[in-house]
Every structure is written in structure tokens, then in C-alpha cells.
Amino acid sequence: MRGETSLFTNEIITSFNELEMLIYNYVMQNKEKVIYMRIRDLADEAHVSTSTIMRFCRKLNCEGFSEFKVKLKLTIDKKSETTIKSGQHILAEFFERTQNEKFNSKLEAAAEAISKADHIYFIGMGSSGTLAEYGARYFSSLGKFSTYLKDWFTPIHSNLNNSITIALSVSGENEFTISHIHKLKEKNSSILSITNNGKSTIAKISDQNVSYYVTEEFFDISNITTQIPVIFILEEMARKVYEKSIRSD
């Protein structure tokens, strides 16, 4: 996974036996101390044998205890050196890039498609799911009733003609969102995606895409890319849809 600095993946952790789990728990609680220990010291503290520690190290793709300590120290150093960009800098970058006719035309085209649809659905996973739920509520508040489809396992039996699905994804590569889009496309729902990358898989399989291109940020294994541009895009589209409804009345 991009941005991952941990030695301990889910797959490796689930492979630990009872004794190896004792080592893992001790290491996680005493990382700063372990990097200066001898193998015998760790064995005594974790109440295991040195041979158990060697098996533990090999599961982490380390040839021995010394290599394990080096890798552990690198993960500690890398995490402590992580710098988080200023939110003001990221927003300034976004607005500088999008305050132009081309971007506004994309929002206008998206708003036009939404205003003509009979049913509006929102989908997304993780933080994108949270914003999808917010988007559905915001559009509904401005008079365009929308539904957030939280459970992508929900069976879809009816035809979704004249509906539009707004799919949110930072990377544009989330496999669950891609599968959800495929199910909705099979039922004839039009797809409008909002992604950070206009060349992503989700952008490519969508009928329309609005991309915002901010620098992706990771902290350890977590994607902490700002979602403020997504909120701006959702609210701007909703306002444009509302304006169109006023003019048509």
C-alpha cells in the first residue's frame, strides 16, 4: 500500500502464533527501547526463546535480529520526520488551478445532467463515503432529493433509467466503488465521478468526471489528502442545480 511504513501488515500479524504475538505486543509497546536491545534481552522481557525471536524476524522478511532492529528504527525515524503541509497552501493551489472557464464548464455540465435526472444517488467508501452522505443531504436541502447508497451489497433489481450516480473517490481506484459503479451502470444509471485524478479507473468508466488534482498526502498508511476541494465541488454543483430549477420554474 502506498505510504506504508510499518513492518507489520495485517497478513503478517495474523500469521503470528501465540509466542510470536508476545514478541509483537512487547515490541509495539517498547519500540524505542527494543532498537537498542540484544536478542537475549528481548527474549527475557518477552518470555520467549531466542530461536522464537529469529522465526519472528524471518516472518518480517529480516535475515536476523540486527536487520529487524534497523528496519524498526527506520519506521520510527520516518514517522517522526513526516511533515504535514499547510492547509492554506493546498487550498491556494486548488483554487489557482480551478478558477478558469474549463473547470467551470465541467461543473456546469455536471449540474445540467443532475438537474435533468429523476433520481440522484451518491456512493463512496471511507472518508469519501462520509462526503457522499453529506452531498446527498446538501443536494436534498437545496430541493434536489438525493440518496446515499451506503451498502454496496444492496440488491438492485429495478431499472435506473434517468438516474445519475455521483461517485466519490480520492484515488479513483477503490475496488468496492468500482464494483458498485459497475452494478449501477448495468441498471442504466449515468455516472458522474469526483476524483483527485482524471486518469484513474473510476474517472475513465464514468460518463462525466470532475477532478481536482491536489497533492496526495499520507501519514503512515493513512491517506490524509484534504477533502475540502470535494466539499467545494459538491456545494458548487448543488447551487448550480438550484439556480437551474429557479430559472425553469
From TrEMBL:
Annotated GO MF terms? carbohydrate derivative binding; DNA binding; DNA-binding transcription factor activity
The record, for CDD domains, names:
SIS_RpiR
GO terms (BP aspect): carbohydrate derivative metabolic process
| Residues covered by the SIS domain | 110-244
**What is the official name of this protein in its record?**
DNA-binding transcriptional regulator, MurR/RpiR family, contains HTH and SIS domains
Tell me the domain of life: Bacteria
What positions does the domain HTH rpiR-type occupy? Answer: 3-79
InterPro entries given in the database record = Homeodomain-like_sf (IPR009057), HTH_RpiR (IPR000281), RpiR-like (IPR047640), RpiR-like_SIS (IPR035472), SIS_dom (IPR001347), SIS_dom_sf (IPR046348), WH-like_DNA-bd_sf (IPR036388)
Keywords on record: DNA-binding, Transcription, Transcription regulation
> By its UniProt entry, which PANTHER family does this protein fall under?
GLUCOKINASE (PTHR30514), HTH-TYPE TRANSCRIPTIONAL REGULATOR HEXR-RELATED (PTHR30514:SF1)
Query: What is the scientific name of the source organism?
Result: Litchfieldia salsa
